[in-house]
Write a structure and sequence with these properties.
Two copies of one chain form a homodimer. Chain A contains five helices and eleven strands; from the N terminus they run H-E-E-E-E-H-E-H-H-E-E-E-H-E-E-E. With about 180 residues, chain A is α+β, with helices and mostly antiparallel strands. Chain A starts with 5 loop residues before the first helix and ends in a 13-residue tail after the last strand. The model of chain A has no long low-confidence stretch (mean pLDDT about 95). Helix content of chain A is about 15%, strand content about 35%. The longest helix of chain A is centred in the first third of the chain and has 8 residues. The interface between A and B is large, with 64 and 65 residues.
């Protein structure tokens, strides 16, 4: 899928998973603080801090994969966010399937709706805010017929699941280039 | 409402409105590129560019209000994003009610679920990415019985409306302080 479609996955604000390639094993964490920064070339902003086991790996390897989980992974997403890669081999523990990415060593997650391969673009706000700017190199959309509903973290352990869709494309008179 | 609850409004990734206090009139725009950067003190990252009429006002006044619209405002949210404050007095045009904020000159939006008063905290990534870091000074939650469902922009003029809620608070063993 063209990298310029990345915002269609992240602008709706789903909870996501982030994988990195550690020395001993793959790491995977849950992340709620992220946004699109630019449509094309696609840039992403996100917050990953020293309290995350993935933080040092990300700083060192300068790459990661952001994966968008379907509603069926709700419990897994919470459990991944509530243990540490320091103690657990999470891909094994949570029966997730790592797949080889194209441009980064971090793995894709086979069970997710989309996988976004990223490299660090800018670290100027990392020391102060743990805010990374990432550049998307490859975007994968899962062809399997997964339930396409995404999860939105309400910040307190409850999640809103995507409900109905409202189509207002005909009113996008100024931003027509965003419509497929 | 305590400022430390801001993430409960923004982490789920709703489309939002942003108001600023212009010289002639209030401005209001639609924004989809934003995230939480820090829980407490609450910091927000967002992208507002020179293509937005509000950009210069925000840089000059250094303050804004981020408002979270309910599903009932879906058409208004799209229409606000598809015209410019250069041509239209949007509060009038879209029959929105500006209310006096507490710490900023930008107005609250009476019809929204929550209003977040913000001041610019950091502009170091503005020149390169139009990325502002904002600090929340006051958080308002609307007491009227509005439909609480939020809108999530799929990036193409379609929106996902909040559906059912999944409660996984009991699994938040590591992040207990986030649970009310």
């Amino acid at each position: 899928v063209p990298v310029s479609k990345t915002h269609q996955w992240l602008e709706p604000g789903p909870i996501v998973l982030v994988t990195t390639a550690g020395r001993r094993a793959h790491n995977i964490m849950t992340m709620g603080f992220h946004m699109m920064v630019q449509h094309d070339p696609a840039l992403i902003g996100c917050v990953i801090g020293p309290w995350d086991f993935s933080y040092n790996v990300l700083r060192k390897t300068k790459e990661c994969v952001i994966a968008v989980p379907p509603v069926s992974l709700a419990r897994t997403v919470v459990d991944i966010g509530n243990c540490s890669g320091e103690d657990v081999e999470k891909f094994e523990q949570f029966k997730l399937t790592p797949l080889q990415a194209k441009t980064v060593a971090a793995p894709l997650v086979a069970e997710c709706l989309a996988n976004i391969e990223c490299r660090i673009e800018d670290t100027r706000l990392v020391n102060r805010y743990n805010l990374f700017v990432l550049r998307v190199s490859v975007l994968w959309a899962n062809r399997k017929r997964l339930d396409p509903r995404k999860l939105h973290h309400n910040g307190d352990g409850t999640f809103s699941v995507d409900g109905r869709t409202i189509d207002l494309r005909e009113r996008m008179v100024k931003w027509r280039e965003l419509i497929d």
